[in-house]
Specification:
Length: 334
């Protein structure tokens, strides 16, 4: 399966498209004036404690106070979680990370279980767990990676608490590459810790990378054949980032200088417009109806013009089979 990543930069927004075998599969958008804040770390202040909801509202400097549940503060699980009033009090400072952007009338969702990603690892400073992405299925490779992390931690003389999750990109990575990531994450955490000590609440402590750089960190895989960027300035930043942290993908980078917009060239704009439509046609003649709401999105499958050939059961089965593939793509795309 061939895969290309297209990065389109304009003054108003940055957009990334993942194209597999010529078909658009994912679109990511980041607007200049309204960047997402998931992954950002803040020093916040507790403004309201709600015992009846086992939750609290935290001022992190945004328009609306953010929301945190007791389970995102406690080190216990399930029924063992302490009452929220035993965990925090009004006026208390709290270091938190955003797990969900504000939407509608709801503020951001928060956790105190901080995590900082790099190319191969996610560092969790407040746990001692070492985990491995479920997408790495080979047991031999999983054991090798666990041992590599243990050896690197021992070699660095790291004694304080702190755990790691090995990301899918770590499959096949060598000990030197893992060690570079561990050192980078430890330096970054030291900077964050120092800033937490001196910053006043509410204030931002750490912001995640821009969309273009996050794309390289999170979306590039061995299947990715080309990464095309239509902005020379962004291409230079990406080239520098890759040279420092991901030199193995340098030969896949390409600047697109054409006058025709890169998303038009690959038919991405048309696909985006279709993805925004409520009705999604299926090749057989059936169709999906996608209705998003605040609490959930519903998808209705209809046979439409497809009447089948033999029995009603076969018609329904074939429609559902086609719909399953189409729905998976729509979920990624939307």
């Amino acid at each position: 399966m061939s895969e290309e990543i297209l990065i389109n930069i304009t003054p108003m927004e940055s957009r990334v498209a993942v194209v597999e075998n010529g078909v658009l599969q994912e679109v990511h958008v980041e607007r200049t004036q309204k960047r997402g804040i998931v992954g950002n770390i803040y020093k916040g202040k507790v403004v309201r404690v709600l015992p009846g909801m086992q939750a609290a509202f935290i001022d992190i400097g945004l328009e609306r106070a953010a929301f945190i549940h007791a389970s995102e503060i406690s080190t216990r699980e399930g029924a063992a979680v302490e009452p929220i009033s035993a965990l925090v009090h009004e006026g208390q400072s709290l270091t938190v990370q955003v797990t969900k952007d504000p939407i509608g009338s709801k503020g951001a969702r928060l956790t105190t279980q901080l995590s900082i990603p790099s190319r191969y690892l996610v560092y969790m400073p407040r746990t001692s767990h070492v985990g491995i992405s479920l997408k790495i299925e080979d047991e031999g490779e999983r054991e090798r990676l666990k041992q590599v992390v243990a050896d690197c931690v021992a070699a660095e003389g790291i004694e304080e608490a702190g755990g790691f999750i090995l990301r899918t990109a770590a499959e096949g990575a060598g000990a030197d590459e893992i060690l570079i990531d561990i050192r980078y994450l430890r330096r970054l955490w030291d900077q964050i810790s120092a800033q937490v000590q001196t910053a006043k609440a509410p204030s931002v402590i750490y912001e995640d990378l821009s969309l273009a750089l996050r794309t390289l960190r999170d979306l590039v895989s061995p299947r990715t054949e080309k990464i095309r960027v239509d902005s020379r300035e962004t291409f230079q930043k990406i080239t520098q980032f890759v040279a420092e942290l991901m030199p193995e993908i340098a030969d896949r980078l390409e600047h697109y200088p054409g006058e025709r917009p890169i998303f038009d060239l690959y038919g991405v704009e048309d696909e985006i417009q279709r993805a925004l439509e409520r009705k999604v046609p299926l090749k057989s003649g059936g169709y999906l109806v996608v209705d998003p709401a605040e609490a959930m999105s519903t998808i209705d499958v209809n046979t439409g013009a497809f009447v089948g050939h033999r029995t009603l059961e076969e018609t329904i089965f074939k429609t559902n089979l086609e719909a399953a593939t189409a729905i998976a793509r729509q979920l990624r795309l939307r």
